[in-house]
Design a protein that fits this description.
Blueprint: E1 3-8, H1 25-38, E2 45-51, E3 99-103, H2 123-129, E4 134-140, H3 142-155, E5 159-168, H4 172-185, E6 188-190
Parallel strand pairs: 1-2, 1-4, 2-3, 4-5, 5-6
The structure holds zinc ion.
Zinc ion binds next to loops.
Family: Belongs to the isochorismatase family.
GO biological process, one term: pyridine nucleotide biosynthetic process
Organism: Cryobacterium lyxosi
């Protein structure tokens, strides 16, 4: 059994004060850091993703241009590569991160499986290369990028556990729907205290 942690999009634009700030985002950042500090041997590999959009274009229709964003498929400009908004939240300690995954360059990308390392390795390649069979997933936002990453991980044959005290959603209703979808697809829920 080889276990990895996926930290999804714990970035300034997705935490309090950001363009698409999620309530509880900063607490998730601090909680993930505490988890890694308290259990340094729990994960053989730690993947952290960042939404990393192009500046100067609408990233395949992902950024609302002429109309107001619908917050379903179009969004305000966020997580532009190289800006403060795209950086990890300062409470997230990234020392333990093995693979930094960037996604969304020029296109919409919700799941970390749509991203790659700076060297161009995909998540699928890395999981296979390192024999990862189980993943715990934390981060932002439960009803968007966490949802998509969990469903993709299950589809790729991983055993998936969502640490429910280390995720936060945009809206209560869509978060509940997303959690139900994850459970239906085979995800297991646990709290970070259960991590050994
Ligand atoms: Zn985006």
């Amino acid at each position: 059994m080889t276990r990895a942690l996926f930290i999804i999009d714990v970035q300034n634009d997705f935490t309090e004060g950001g363009v698409l700030g999620v309530d509880g985002g900063a607490a998730v950042a601090a909680g993930v850091s505490a988890l890694l500090a308290e259990h340094p041997l729990a994960y053989e590999y730690v993947f952290a993703s960042r939404d990393w959009h192009d500046i100067g274009n609408d990233n395949g229709g992902h950024f609302a241009r002429d109309a107001a964003p619908d917050y379903v498929t179009t969004w305000p400009v966020h997580c532009v590569a190289g800006t403060t908004g795209a950086e990890y939240h300062k409470a997230l300690t990234t020392d333990a991160v093995t693979f930094h995954i960037r996604k969304g360059q020029g296109r919409p990308a919700y799941s970390l499986f749509e991203g790659a390392t700076e060297a161009g390795q995909t998540v699928t390649e890395l999981l296979s290369e390192h024999g990862v069979t189980e993943v715990d997933i934390v981060g932002l936002a439960t009803d968007h990028c966490v949802r998509a990453s969990v469903l993709d991980a299950l589809e790729h044959g991983q055993r998936v556990r969502v640490l429910t005290d280390l995720v936060a959603g945009v809206a209560a209703e869509s978060t509940l729907t997303a959690l139900a979808e994850m459970a239906h697809a085979g995800a297991v829920f646990a709290v970070s205290d259960a991590v050994e």
